[in-house]
## 1
Amino acid sequence: MAEYSDFRSDTVTRPTAKMRKAMAEAEVGDDVLGDDPTVQKLESLAAEKMGKEAAMYVPSGTMANSIAINGWTKELDEVIVEERAHLYNMESTHLTFIARVLPRPLPSNRGAMDPDEVERSIRKPGVHIPRTSLICVENTHNNWSGAVVPMENLKAIRKIADKHDLKMHFDGARVFNASAASGIPVKEYAALGDSIMFCLSKGLSAPVGSMLTGPKDFIDFGRRVRKALGGGMRQVGVLAAPGIVALTEMVDRLKEDHERAKKLALAIAELPGVSLNPDHVETNIIIFGFNHPKISIPEFLSKLKEEGILALATSGGRIRFVTHKDVGDRDIDKAISSFRKILAGA
Ligand SMILES: *Cc1c(COP(=O)(O)O)cnc(C)c1O
């Protein structure tokens, strides 16, 4: 794939040389028995970065969200989610399949749910009615083109959670991107969630894994859920080691991804068939409508591929480009010229 400029996702990054070295040299033990010093180091580092009591390394962001929802809810509960949330749309139904709770999707303004509507949606249990126990928020918001959800909005929702004695789980898969774009420290975001998860395997470029952080008793219970889901891993320090490199060395470069995404967005927003407001590209994800009289989305993507550019179609007649460590300025320029060439010929 080396010849392609791969914009499909920020999960396609390859580990850096430092990560490979850290993997080779990692001290390991059986993590299910609590013996892996590298995993322990990563977990303490993650807890400290988020300002939480405890953290747990998990194989994926999906598992982190699933464990969090299991930790904060009981069967017959309802969970308030944003209607385009990743954990509601893109995680193979674990809310119902694993936690057996009812999702209550609410609309939003680019990921920011209306706090009054959140409050109105909270249900007290009755013979017909589930108990609302949890509110989930996501920031940056993947399917809203990597939108940075405003701090005031998240705070207003937190207030409602407190008022009604609900928990709040923060899907911070890309919370470091949110922080890079807003200048707000990740700890301030993390403080809003009873729990927060983030991915090491997205813009931070580690090969595998996510971190779930929160109170110690929640994480202790989470370790049991992780085992039940088949996520107990043995000498997993070899995977945690590049996660440490991700957290200590890969955070500061995220703003480069944002600058490149903005450059690409500004260039393609003008082109025929593309509907995109470049102001809505705040971080590393560009999602735009594509509706051209002569060329369909699959045709356009296959022509891009012929030019060496990979991107993905997403729901609602849209196309998604994501910037990351392994696409540089040359890839951006190549993408822009390929867009122009294909659309000029169409
Ligand atoms: C990618 C992603 C996840 C899930 O992470 P995986 O490691 O792919 O399971 C969760 N939430 C958001 C917002 C994501 O973008």
## 2
Amino acid sequence: MNHFEQIKALDDQYVMHTYGRFPVAVVEGKNARCTDADGKTYIDMTSGIGVNALGFCDEGWIRAVTDQLCKIAHISNLYYTLPCIQAAQILCQRTGMKKVFFANGGAEANEGAIKAARKYAFMKYGPGRNKIITLKNSFHGRTVTTLAATGQEVFHNYFFPFTEGFDFAAAGDLDDLKAKCAGDVCAVMVELVQGEGGVVPVSKDYIQKVAAFCRENDILLIVDEVQTGVGRTGSLYCFQQYGIQPDIVTSAKGIGGGLPLAAVLFGEKTENALQPGHHATTFGGNPVACAGAVEVLNRLDDAFLAEVSKKGAYITQRVMKMPHVKSVSGMGLMLGIELDEGLKAADVVRAGIQNGVLLLTAKAKVRLLPPLTIPYEQIDQALDALEKTLAEL
Ligand SMILES: *Cc1c(COP(=O)(O)O)cnc(C)c1O
């Protein structure tokens, strides 16, 4: 039971068909290199959709996680455990945020942020101030509420009734946002680089104006850093490059270094918004996942983050010279490649697999989210394979 066709047959039979999988069964890896069930190797430019911040099988991360695994794997949030406290302390000290709630995934972190924002406004203004404005083309998750928060019509289907209280402003259009922020709005929620929406950075000037407008009107600013956070864009959190201090930041994907973990970071206004009984999750702050997070966060020092930006710039200048490339968007190691008209990103991903590189799409773009630790040698291999793939189109 090792070969791809056998693995695929069992998946077809037993696993719910919710994913359009590519025909590869990855069995092991080291940093950005991995091997499939039939022994073929690839350079991974996906990091499990921005999750494996330190790549596959990072030695420090394995040590941190297995040490914790040998002490205690789970006990519940009714008791104190050290790893989640350590992770929370690092997160607060390095972001200026005040408190952390741990969850298990991005959508769940956003649910926590939404609940906290509504509770803050309820306690201060009474019922009625509960609307949240998000941006058009955003993506905030797959739960019924975070689908409702997602500013793309394609996601508002089948699962009616969706959670009420969301409206969508055009990114970059301050007047549109202001017009939608009536007295019933408690929060604005944004991604700084729209990930699933096609690796689209939102302008710094616009975001700073949104932040000022929110502050003046006691509207909370929630920044969804599920994809942009944890070093991905060259700073620990992307908002740190935007010159703003959000009221709530959500983080997931890379934070556990490969284990399911998410965090909601609360600022001064919201640090006491949720009290015992208002919010909880059984696995949140799991000691093993948090031990992984402590290792990830400690590794992401200034020198490491500067390397992320340098690698991103290096990749960008090489990709810009490749055939069929119209533009490259994004920040750090979160990059989107716009292709010539008529070319399909999914075709590039499929052909890339043949040439030994794993890629992602984001709408019409080819998206790169390599592990932050990827060495230049593996970057070059991946880019050689990408260049060959594009030249063959
Ligand atoms: C991936 C993503 C989510 C959803 O995270 P899950 O862990 O899949 O629930 C939410 N927001 C953004 C910006 C994301 O990229």
